[in-house]
Amino acid sequence: MASPDQDLAPVLDKDGVRLTVDDALATVTLTNPAKRNAQSPALWRALAEAGRSLPGSVRVVVLRGEGQSFSAGLDRQMFTPEGIPGEPTFIELARRDDADLDAAIAGFQEAFTWWRQSDIVSIAAVQGHAIGAGFQLALACDLRVVADDVQFAMRETSLGLVPDLTGTHPLVSLVGYARALEICATGRYVQAEEAVASGLASVAVPVDELDAAVRDLAGALLAAPRDAVVETKALLRGAACRTYDEQRAAERQAQARRLRDLAGVGE
């Protein structure tokens, strides 16, 4: 994919991650196409730093990957006995006590948690392979627009592991328990048509139209008043945890805030 942010000075550019900001629109790009944007702890630290570096003006964040693949998952070097220089190997992680191991995984997860914060809407532009950690990174976003060559797969189970980078909650929310179990346990590919039909993706487009489709969606999101989008996102995010009557009450409370704000009337 061509880079739509290549003319902007990066706010952050390190360890396979570039962040650029154009007023209310930020773009986070995975920049290691030679390795199909494989993921490592260094990349996760850079993604977490990108989230912390967002200016308050940003309303929409686009996540994309350079090259033919969005992200083919974990860097295979992590599975070797020597691992990645400067990073703990899987064997070293396994030897830690429960608290230290939990803290290490929680640190990895920080790269995946900020995409759904209440004051932004995040869009993953996904082409080619989105495998394992790549699938979970796409799931971390609020919305997914995919190219017609997309191939999602959750391969952790086939490696004797479980998906632990925050992907299980959104996956079940989007496709339901039974299909989520089948996708994870078999490790099979989910392609564009199924991704749209199951709710994993909003729309599928030809590869050469992916950037334009994402720009159109971002523009539509930015056209709506920010506070209304923030309130609506909070309402929808909490709906699954509320009863019908609780959701009705939450709607009333949110609407009261919006009406008072629009009328310039204090609480």
How would you sum up this structure in a few lines?
The chain contains ten helices and ten strands. It is an alpha/beta fold and 267 residues long.
Question: Your description of this structure?
Answer:
The chain is 43% helix and 16% strand. With 267 residues, the chain is of the alpha/beta class. The strands form 2 sheets. A 7-stranded mixed β-sheet has the order 1-2-3-4-5-7-10, sandwiched between helices. It has a 3-stranded mixed β-sheet with strand order 6-8-9.
Q: What summary fits the major beta sheet?
A: 7 strands, mixed
Radius of gyration: 19 Å
What is the 3D form?
globular
Low-confidence stretches: none
Q: Secondary-structure element sequence?
A: EEEHEHHEEHEEHHEHEHHH
Distance between the termini: 48 Å
Strand content: 15-25%
Number of helices: 10
Rounded mean pLDDT is 95
Strand order of the largest sheet: 1-2-3-4-5-7-10
Q: What is the helix fraction of residues, given as a range?
A: 40-55%
Quantity of strands, as a count: 10
**Pairing-aware structural class of the strands and helices?**
alpha/beta
Secondary structure topology:
Blueprint: E1 12-14, E2 17-22, E3 25-30, H1 41-52, E4 60-65, H2 90-94, H3 98-113, E5 121-126, E6 129-131, H4 133-140, E7 143-147, E8 151-153, H5 168-175, H6 177-186, E9 190-191, H7 192-198, E10 203-205, H8 210-223, H9 226-239, H10 244-263
Parallel strand pairs: 3-4, 4-5, 5-7, 6-8, 7-10
Antiparallel strand pairs: 1-2, 2-3, 8-9
